[in-house]
Design goal:
The protein is of the alpha/beta class and 342 residues long. The chain has a single domain, classed as TIM Barrel. It is built from ten helices and nine strands. The two termini are 13 Å apart.
């Protein structure tokens, strides 16, 4: 496959994996390099269903409750006194989900005659899982358990897919934290965060394929953070690429330019830092600009601006998954991806 491609971050409209993947293939089939299973049902809200399952975890207890109606209304847990948290005791559900959706993916892949299509697996970053569960300070103390659990699931899913899978590491906390940091402190923090993200890949088997989904948050289709310009995502991307292990494949980096319900900015200066992106051409750069609430003409201008800054055509996606949109809006967003990627 050559030319500009389309990318799907994760969740898709539909009541089942078959419905979500079928819609994606029907809309974007020839443009897709990889396909997620749609993360339908309870999984459409990213990690909310995982954290909710911790209410019955024997080693965790609820510190403060929340109904997920906003970012400051999230349930917070802690490790019970006298208990230890181990990776073996954490089940994020990705193995079970993949076991159910992989046969459907293989059937649709064969029907579409796309032997090259790769199964894409959304993989929340280990620090992000720890932070949204325990809070920032406790996340640093107990991160190892989340790292072990994440890598265990990556290994199991990769075995189920016979190695024909790409794991999309999803890291909103890191980009939002960097965007909120004063510019003078961003380079050092980017090196630290980028190194930690790359370290997760180092723990996987050498042949494992990865992608990176930088994110600004999309809970209830509202962003957790915003950027004044593209500098934070450039700094973080450069740090990840520099620290990435040589024997692990990095297929793509997805960058959000829209922020949930906010369309991407029109100001060309916002995208100027992309000229500093130090990323080999073998790694696809995916621009998260597709937005159903912005005129196509404006979106084409933004696409051209990004292409000029990069010095090559960017692949196209939305800023995040489509599970938090209405079915009508999600379908319109898929159509917009097709228009911008064609």
């Amino acid at each position: 496959m050559t030319g500009r491609r389309a990318h799907l971050v994760g969740s898709l409209p539909g009541g089942s994996a078959e419905e979500g993947m079928s819609l994606a293939i029907d809309t974007l089939g020839p443009l897709l390099a990889s396909l997620p299973d749609g993360e339908t049902g309870d999984r459409h809200n990213w990690i909310i269903h995982i954290i909710e399952s911790f209410r019955s975890h024997p080693d965790l207890e609820l510190v403060s409750d929340g109904d997920w109606s906003d970012y400051d209304k999230i349930p917070r847990f802690r490790v019970r006194k006298g208990h230890h948290l181990y990776g073996a005791s954490l089940d994020f559900g990705h193995v079970e989900a993949a076991a159910k959706s992989l046969p459907v993916f293989e059937l649709l892949k064969a029907k579409a005659q796309r032997s090259d299509l790769v199964f894409q697996v959304g993989t929340p970053g280990d620090f992000d899982m720890a932070m949204f569960t325990l809070g920032p300070a406790a996340a640093l103390r107990h991160r190892r358990a989340f790292t072990e659990a994440t890598l265990n699931e990556v290994r199991q899913v990769n075995a189920l897919a016979d190695g024909d899978a790409v794991f999309q590491i999803e890291v909103p906390a890191e980009l939002v934290l960097l965007a909120k940091t004063p510019r003078v402190g961003q380079p050092a923090l980017a090196r630290l965060l980028g190194g930690q993200i790359a370290a997760l890949a180092s723990g996987a088997a050498p042949a494992t394929r990865f992608g990176i989904h930088l994110c600004l948050g999309d809970m209830n289709h509202r962003a957790l953070g915003r950027m004044r310009d593209a500098s934070p995502l450039v700094a973080l991307t450069n740090a990840i690429v520099k620290a990435w292990p040589a024997d692990r494949a990095l297929d793509f980096v997805h960058a959000p330019f829209a922020a949930a319900d906010d369309p991407p900015p029109l100001d060309e200066s916002f995208y100027a830092p992309l000229a500093r992106l130090a990323m080999p051409s073998r790694i696809r750069f995916v621009a998260g600009i597709a937005h159903e609430d912005q005129p196509l003409a404006d979106q084409l201008r933004i696409r051209a601006t990004i292409d000029r800054a990069l010095g090559r055509p960017a692949d196209i996606s939305t800023s995040c998954g489509l599970g938090r949109r209405t079915t009508e809006a999600a379908t319109a967003a898929l159509d917009r991806i097709r228009e911008l990627a064609s």
